[in-house]
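Researcher: Please predict.
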Amino acid sequence: MGSLTAAAGGGAAYAAVPESETPDRLCGFQDCGTLCRCRFDQWYADIRLRYGYGMTADPEAALYWYRKAAEAGDRRAAFNLGLMLRDGTAGKPQPETSLTLLRQAAEAGIPEADLALGNGYRLGLFGAVDTSVALAHYRAAAEAGLVPAQHALANMLADGLGIRRDLESAYTWWRIAAWKGATLSADALSRVDWLIAPKVRRRAILRAEAWLARH
């Protein structure tokens, strides 16, 4: 049958999953409160240096300050540092160091770090592609309420990446994300509706409603 997420705009959907703490005008979702920490708080200077708000962007300086904060025990800074090192934002990518930092941030309860780990394992940014591990990290972030991770998890379930294909669960997670305002998830739902039996769709919707009631 081929890739369900390809039929549902999956390539663009994967690419649109943002991870970092950018302001809402830069992220891919409107309801970015749990995604981006759009409030400029203690990371204000680092974010300005990283993206150039009100000054010339200086990723190397941002990297320096993230590193200082991470060394002082700030797990949010460790997340941002890990993301920059993974992507080589201020130099050559450092996958091993990035992986260590992102794991520390994820273990500290930062769901964006699980999303970054999921993307990294799915794309092979830490070495070999590992869709099973990617799926586990997407699921952790999705269960924590992170909308982009919910969408990514649905994509993985629909395409059978890291797990046997499970369209009912994929529909459930797309539905949850869509109810939270994720337009990519809403688009995916509209494009796969014809693939799902009415009773399966109803079960998926009930599961989504139950999840939202618990959270």
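Model: The radius of gyration is 18 Å.
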